[in-house]
């Protein structure tokens, strides 16, 4: 059996991707603190244009979900009427299953990422007493549709983006999530229902 808690983002105007990023950041902290590996992130209103105005957390362990939404951030956002946190519900099985996957391939093709890689490789070559000669690389890869979710590293305070794509699955699949509650790109994905009302 799987359970879920859905959080609806309320007042407009608002930045849904930023709110999703804050929620994922709180989940990231809980995963690292308690070692949870099966709370998966879902976006019930995901579409071509946006992540949607809600986020959901899915798990076989209802206590873990309750602990997650009892975190200070969620309590405050609910008390200020910025979030509508739905009660814990049982997933109705038999519907369409999807996985939300972090994809870093798109990052590697951007100019900023290539510049960072160039500097890193040049520094390593210099430490070895060599002259760095960059290879000519072609980034002709095509990417599946994805959305960028802004995040902030608690350790370094640097901002970065999670590139998240939706992957359709033919059946319920119980893999392990990464530190952000997303399915890993390789191995068995962790599926979530496409519809969570």
Write up this protein.
The chain is of the alpha+beta class. Helices cover 28% and strands 24% of the residues. The chain has 5 helices and 9 strands. Strands 1, 2, 3, 4 and 5 form a 5-stranded antiparallel beta sheet that branches. A 4-stranded antiparallel beta sheet has the order 7-8-6-9, with helices on one face. A hairpin with a 6-residue loop joins strand 7 (146-152) and strand 8 (159-169). The longest helix has 19 residues, at 16-34. The protein starts with a strand and ends with a strand. The mean pLDDT is 88.
Output the keywords:
197 residues; alpha+beta; five-stranded antiparallel β-sheet; globular
Summarize the structure.
By secondary structure, the protein is of the alpha+beta class.
Q: Can you lay out the helices and strands and say which pair or pack?
A:
Blueprint: E1 3-9, H1 16-34, E2 40-42, E3 54-59, H2 62-69, H3 72-79, E4 83-85, E5 89-90, E6 97-102, H4 105-108, H5 111-127, E7 146-152, E8 159-169, E9 192-193
Antiparallel strand pairs: 1-3, 1-4, 1-5, 2-3, 6-8, 6-9, 7-8
Structural class: alpha+beta
Largest sheet features:
5 strands, antiparallel
Task: Please give the share of residues in helix.
Answer: 25-40%
Radius of gyration: 19 Å
What proportion strand? 15-25%
Distance between the termini: 17 Å
Number of helices: 5
H and E string: EHEEHHEEEHHEEE
Poorly predicted ranges: none
Number of strands: 9
CA-based shape: globular
Q: Provide the residue-averaged pLDDT.
A: 88
């Amino acid at each position: 059996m799987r359970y879920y808690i859905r959080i609806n983002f309320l007042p407009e105007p608002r930045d849904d991707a930023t709110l999703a990023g804050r929620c994922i950041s709180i989940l990231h902290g809980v995963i690292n603190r308690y070692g949870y590996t099966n709370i998966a992130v879902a976006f019930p209103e995901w579409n071509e244009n946006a992540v949607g105005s809600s986020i959901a957390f899915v798990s076989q362990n209802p206590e873990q979900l309750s602990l997650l939404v009892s975190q200070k951030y969620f309590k405050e956002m609910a008390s200020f009427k910025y979030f509508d946190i739905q009660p814990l519900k049982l997933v109705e099985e038999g519907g369409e299953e999807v996985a939300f996957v972090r994809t870093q391939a798109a990052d590697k093709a951007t100019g900023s990422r290539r510049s960072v890689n160039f500097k890193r490789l040049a520094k390593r070559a210099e430490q070895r007493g060599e002259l760095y000669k960059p290879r000519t690389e072609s980034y002709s890869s095509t990417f599946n549709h994805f959305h960028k979710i802004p995040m902030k590293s608690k350790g370094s305070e640097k901002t970065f983006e999670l590139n998240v794509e939706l992957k359709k699955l033919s059946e319920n699949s119980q893999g392990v999530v990464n530190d952000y509650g997303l399915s890993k790109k390789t191995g068995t994905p962790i599926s979530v229902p496409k519809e969570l009302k």
